[in-house]
């Protein structure tokens, strides 16, 4: 009888180990795919416009005709435009990225830096002063969530946009095209506050 029980426990243990190995293999494969997409980007020589720190977007009617809204594909795979009037009803993800995009459009490097996690700035530093960025075709997509600890969630997104008349003060890895970014935000579960912990650029530029 003991022998049968022992065999049963061994079989259960083997199944658990096998399941864990399969899970680890899937995670490793997913990480390797992201690593391939975000490998070191070569230096590219773009022809940037002259920076204008007094820029007024109303001086560029062509830009005003472009799609300047933030389009967010959420966890339920539903896409919605995120605006000042509806971001609160769409939840913390929409609120965070509405403010993130606003800081970029406003050329507000202080607001931008306030959204960076201290562990990120320790490695990459803070963003220097940049001009108002005329960004458009803004696509945000929810990719996945993990638990960092009992008080912190990590959510990863992809973000892609173009910069009209890019002057290189904010991003020098793109010219007239776009390059997807993978951004991981750490959310404090008690306050709802989010901070960017990781930001990686996809290798390929879309023109």
How would you describe this protein?
By secondary structure, this protein is of the alpha+beta class. The protein is built from five helices and six strands; from the N terminus they run ααββαααββββ. The protein has a six-stranded mixed beta sheet with strand order 2-1-3-4-5-6.
Q: Please give the number of β-strands.
A: 6
Overall mean pLDDT stands at 86
Q: What is the molecular shape?
A: globular
Give the biggest sheet. 6 strands, mixed
Strand content: 25-35%
Say what oligomer this is.
Answer: single chain
Number of helices: 5
Q: Runs with pLDDT <50, length 5+?
A: none
Distance between the termini: 70 Å
Order of adjacent strands in the largest pleated sheet: 2-1-3-4-5-6
Kindly state the percentage of residues in helix.
25-40%
- Compute the CA-based radius of gyration: 22 Å
Give the SSE string: HHEEHHHEEEE
Structural class: alpha+beta
């Amino acid at each position: 009888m003991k022998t049968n029980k022992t065999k049963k426990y061994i079989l259960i243990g083997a199944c658990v180990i096998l399941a864990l190995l399969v899970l680890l293999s899937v995670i490793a494969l997913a990480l390797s795919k992201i690593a391939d997409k975000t490998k070191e980007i070569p230096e590219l020589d773009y022809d940037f416009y002259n920076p204008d720190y007094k820029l007024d977007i109303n001086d560029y009617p062509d830009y005003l005709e472009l799609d300047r809204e933030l389009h967010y594909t959420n966890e339920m795979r539903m896409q919605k435009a995120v605006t000042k009037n509806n971001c609160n009803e769409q939840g913390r993800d929409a609120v965070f990225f509405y403010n993130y995009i606003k800081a970029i459009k406003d050329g507000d490097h202080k607001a931008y830096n306030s959204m960076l996690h201290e562990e990120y700035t320790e490695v990459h530093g803070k963003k220097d002063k940049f001009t108002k960025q005329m960004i458009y075709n803004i696509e945000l997509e929810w990719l996945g969530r993990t638990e960092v600890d009992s008080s912190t969630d990590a959510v990863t997104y992809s973000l892609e946009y173009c910069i009209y008349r890019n002057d290189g003060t904010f991003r020098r890895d793109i010219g007239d095209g776009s390059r997807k970014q993978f951004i991981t935000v750490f959310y404090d579960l008690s306050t709802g506050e989010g901070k960017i912990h990781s930001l990686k650029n996809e290798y390929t530029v879309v023109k």
